[in-house]
């Protein structure tokens, strides 16, 4: 194996604490839902702007 | 949901580090108990979990505020042992890959391209875990093994790929 193909060695791998991981996942999910809502709203506004423009033309 | 792992899954992985695609992190927050256990199982089998900064950025983008950004980052980092750097030779591989993909490369995301180029660099020393099985065609990558996610309605599949030598 060439030197540049070597991957870093991990001496101690993490262990996920399932309880804490589930609690954190809940917050992450809420964040993604909020982001999706924002994106949906943004798309709707952009569509409205385009539609308005098309109606006038 | 239940993660169905084939009997020879860990022996096929042979302790080779696993490069995680963004969809692994997305499914993990949707099904944290199952994915948390699966990640622990991988580590117990001496598999190092690695990813790229491009994957991290794809996951973190759009966070509405600093607190949520930190929570997303903390969650993400629970699943990562090492970040692999994208060096010049990996970018050169990306160029080569684009030529191999031909017209299929049109719909390829930059993150997927970098994942593929990283696999190309590490050859047999790195595997990719992804649910995006259509963007890693078997004329370029070898499907080493797979994992099924059994839902009440339907089955999703994660492929484990390496660059075809």
Q: Care to give the gist of this entry?
A:
The complex is a heterodimer of chains A (57) and B (165). Chain A is mostly helical.
Write the layout of secondary structure elements.
The complex is a heterodimer of chains A (57) and B (165).
Chain A: H1 18-56
Chain B: E1 2-4, H1 9-13, E2 18-20, H2 22-30, H3 32-44, E3 49-52, H4 53-60, H5 66-78, E4 82-84, H6 88-101, H7 110-122, E5 127-130, E6 141-150, E7 155-163
Parallel strand pairs in B: 2-3, 2-5, 3-4
Antiparallel strand pairs in B: 1-6, 5-7, 6-7
Structural notes for this entry:
The complex is a heterodimer of chains A (57) and B (165). Chain A is mostly helical and 57 residues long. Chain A is built from 1 helix and no strands. Chain A is elongated. Chain A starts with 17 loop residues before the first helix and ends with a helix. By secondary structure, chain B is α/β, with parallel strands linked by helices. Chain B is built from 7 helices and 7 strands. Chain B has a 7-stranded mixed β-sheet. In chain B, helix 2 crosses helix 3 and helix 6 (88-101) packs across helix 7. The longest helix of chain B has 14 residues, at 88-101. The interface between A and B is medium-sized, with 26 and 36 residues.
Task: Give descriptors for this structure.
heterodimer, A: 57 residues, mainly alpha, 1 helix, 68% helix, elongated, B: 165 residues, alpha/beta, seven-stranded mixed sheet, 7 helices, globular
Mean pLDDT over the full residue set of chain A: 82
Regarding quaternary structure, how should these chains be classified?
heterodimer
**Structure annotation, total helices of chain A:** 1
Instruction: Give me the strand/helix succession of chain A.
Output: H
Name the poorly predicted regions of chain B: none
Q: What's the alpha carbon Rg of chain B, rounded to whole Å?
A: 16 Å
> Unreliable segments of chain A (pLDDT under 50, ≥5 consecutive)?
none
Shape of chain B: globular
* Largest β sheet strand count, sense and barrel closure of chain B: 7 strands, mixed
> Into which percent range does the helicity of residues of chain B fall?
40-55%
Q: Alpha-carbon distance between the termini of chain A?
A: 65 Å
The string of secondary-structure elements of chain B, in order, is EHEHHEHHEHHEEE
Gap from first CA to last CA of chain B: 35 Å
Q: How does the helix and strand content of chain B classify structurally?
A: alpha/beta
Shape of chain A: elongated
Category from helices, strands and their pairing of chain A: mainly alpha
Provide the residue-averaged pLDDT of chain B.
Answer: 96
């Amino acid at each position: 194996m060439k030197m540049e193909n070597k991957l870093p060695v991990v001496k101690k791998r993490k262990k996920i604490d399932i309880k804490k991981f589930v609690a954190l996942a809940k917050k992450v999910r809420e964040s993604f839902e909020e982001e999706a809502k924002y994106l949906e709203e943004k798309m709707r506004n952009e569509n409205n702007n385009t539609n308005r423009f098309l109606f006038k033309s | 949901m239940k993660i169905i792992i084939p009997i020879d899954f860990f022996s096929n992985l042979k302790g080779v580090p696993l490069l995680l695609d963004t969809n692994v992190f997305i499914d993990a927050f949707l099904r944290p108990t199952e994915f948390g256990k699966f990640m622990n199982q991988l580590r117990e089998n001496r598999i190092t979990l690695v990813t790229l900064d491009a994957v991290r950025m794809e996951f973190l983008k759009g966070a509405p505020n600093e607190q949520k950004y930190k929570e997303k980052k903390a969650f993400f980092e629970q699943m990562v042992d090492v970040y692999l750097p994208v060096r010049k030779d990996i970018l050169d591989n990306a160029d080569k890959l684009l030529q191999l993909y031909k017209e299929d490369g049109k719909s390829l995301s930059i993150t997927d391209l970098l994942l593929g180029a990283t696999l190309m660099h590490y050859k047999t020393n790195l595997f990719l875990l992804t649910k995006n099985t259509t963007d890693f065609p078997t004329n370029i990558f070898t499907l080493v093994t797979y994992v099924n996610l059994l839902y009440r309605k339907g089955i999703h599949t994660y492929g484990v790929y390496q660059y075809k030598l």
